[in-house]
From TrEMBL:
Boundaries of every Cobalamin-independent methionine synthase MetE N-terminal domain copy: 6-309
Name of the coding gene: metE
Annotated protein name in UniProt: 5-methyltetrahydropteroyltriglutamate--homocysteine methyltransferase
Residues that, per the record, bind L-homocysteine: I423, G424, S425, E476, D591
Lineage, broadest ranks: Bacteria, Pseudomonadati, Spirochaetota, Spirochaetia, Spirochaetales
Residues engaged in binding 5-methyltetrahydropteroyltri-L-glutamate: R17, E18, L19, K20, K111, N116, R507, C508, W553, E597
Molecular function terms, GO-annotated: 5-methyltetrahydropteroyltriglutamate-homocysteine S-methyltransferase activity; zinc ion binding
Amino acid sequence: MICKTLVTGFPRIGENRELKRALEHYWSKTASLQELRATAAELRKRHWLFQKRQNIDFISSNDFSYYDNMLDTIVMLNAVPDRFSGIEDETERYFAMARGTAGASAMTMSKWFDTNYHYIVPELSGTLDFRLCPGKILTEYAEAKKLGVKTKINVIGPITFMGLSRASKGENPFGYASRIIPLYKELLARCAELDDTLYIQMEEPYLVKNPTAEVLALLKAAYQDLASVSSNIRIIVTSYFEHSNETTKILAETPIWGLGLDFVHGPQNIQGLKYAKGKKIFAGVVDGRNIWRNDLGASLFLLEKISDMVGREQVVVSTSCSLLHVPYSLQNEPESDIKQHLAFCCEKVEELALLGRVFRGEVVLDSDNIGMKTARSRTPSTQHDGPADIAFGERKVRAGDFAERNALQRRKFHLPKLPTTTIGSFPQTQELRRLRRDFKKRAISEEAYEQGIKTYIDDCIAFQEEIGLDVLVHGEPERNDMVEYFGEMLKGFHFTDNGWVQSYGSRCVKPPIIYGDISRTKPMTVRWISYAQRRSKKPVKGMLTGPVTILNWSFVREDIPRPLVARQIAAALCEEVADLQAAGISIIQVDEAAFREGYPLRKENVSAYERWAVDSFRLAVSSAAKETQIHTHMCYSDFTDIIKTIEAMDADVITIETARGGNRLLDVFEREGYHNEIGPGVYDIHSPRIPSEDEFEKQIFSRLEVLDGKRMWINPDCGLKTRRWEEVRPALQHMVSATRNVRLTL
Ligand code: GLN
Ligand code: ZN
């Protein structure tokens, strides 16, 4: 058989998010486990048969998951943390690890490399009862075979598994190799019994993260071992999201069968190929991370180059990574000008099939296909004519250094010590969601909608006044999503009807598509913020989403550099800041929730990213006068190594999440000499618990052990919108009164 095509992995949530619905019904006990299993089996079948109809040669099994593939791997190795091991029922235990129970907190989630997909972080410790549980893998293989599909089996490789794990204090996760690698060997031995030839795709994206000498040595030994288990087994080691040149040479010296490489996000992979002679190369040329149609001509050219290096018969055309990160199908989208330029998962599989056939000389490419990308850049709306005064590379920053601004702002605001505030949103009630939905559907009049929003803001401001917060917010009732809201008002964005992508578990997001130059045609937030400001003598914060976050949570055009798109967004926000200021808003918060996840995977690319990301933020707030106080908010648990960059953003105040982690984060800020003002979170909004005044005092006193009270704010962590008013009201009241008590002691 001549093998032409491989799909790294297929999304499992379903064309109409069937898996999401089935999971949520099962969790809320409105559906049985049988029903959930039936939906899952139906989805697997549909997805396998679709790929088969497209004549894909390598179709995956075990790319399905009820929650997350990393969690499945934890189960495969029986690396079940002690707090869950008492749960007898397998399904119950599985979801308990993902979602927590009354008695045991959920396992942590973390972002999968630089994507917006979250995996469950394995917890390695000496007490784990490691043992192979290959059930899911073996059954799914048999299930597909019965449907006439002989799959390759996807497994997260041992190096990536350990590399992404958290080991008990002071332990090195790679120290678990001697317990984990033997289980992978056992797995391969079990798989070898399934068929004459078995293809195993070992996913090792960890290899793209500047592997250390330790990782390289471990990798070599591991795959030397694994590839020797059985002559029935053909191992493909797959990396993605960047090049993995350090490891290509090493892997080529082991008896593995093939290498999966991402030539879209790691074009440098081509250089490693000179070491890869004799190995099959699964050449990732169809982008699994973006939604633009493939430039087939360019892909074929690339495939020819790869062939020149390793020999034509060795090359199999592949997706750059799993298609998990793109929406399902364009068929569910209404007609629009940009639709012809898009390819979602199903269309990408078709592109792959076509590329495979052309590459093998079975058909010729017609001009329609070759021309697509060029056609897109010829579309008038994507021609670059962005604002002239933001030429790429030019830096625009606000006036005054922190010391000067801070002195002016103190004189202007007269805030008490430890000023109190919140991060922006207040509870999003059912009523509010209905109001927005009805207005969007035109089921209610504009007046009715606006009255609804006004009432919410009135109540929200009245509540904050009543409990005595110092800097107020309007509560964000008009926003369903912090990116979508701005995207809808800016030129250059397209919104899909059904472009859902799995974010974690049953949660999906619908990223906007940036297809053209971005510009602002009218003020976006001024009306509601000034409405709120008129209701109070205290300052009400303007609330904007930052340029880097808008960029990172969108699918971005590829005909101009990303930093330039970021600058266009920043320029639009800069106008908004100016308008807010002119309308009398004196404190403006610019959220950068996705600043951290935008970091490149490779160290050598970090400083360039930091430069343009910081520049974009500073450009966005460059219209702020010295007296205008700029806040930013970032909700990550790890600021190590990036404090200098946060400092370069030079926000007057940064709010962070510390309610769960205690002083650990603040320590990092202190140690690195960060000197602007900081608002460490003292209310853990991820928990339904309402902390007492006493607990708040303890939290605040504890923060004061690390941070000088003169530059400290008091606020909750972010996410009030996910809580109910009945929780938020008493909690914030306790927060404010506790702060008052603490002030008396300062
Ligand atoms: N202002 C937003 C809110 O409070 C910030 C959310 C975020 O950064 N994740 O919801
Ligand atoms: Zn946050």
